[in-house]
Amino acid sequence: MPGLIVDVLHSVGDMVKKGENMIILEAMKMENIIKAPHDARIKSIHINKNQSVDKDQILLEFE
Length: 63
Fold this sequence. Notes:
Layout lengths: L2 E6 L6 E2 L4 E7 L2 E6 L4 E6 L6 E2 L6 E3 L1
Antiparallel strand pairs: 1-3, 1-6, 2-5, 3-4, 5-7
């Protein structure tokens, strides 16, 4: 579902733990929290704050 990136809570190189909040995404006037699926280091971030995103778009990558 298309949405708008409200906030990106981490930077490239940050370590995240499983379940940690990473991105706030607004879709259908509701804010959704995207959480880390596992412990990992963020390799790259493909989105910016206030950017519109499409269904199935890659938001970030892990090492």
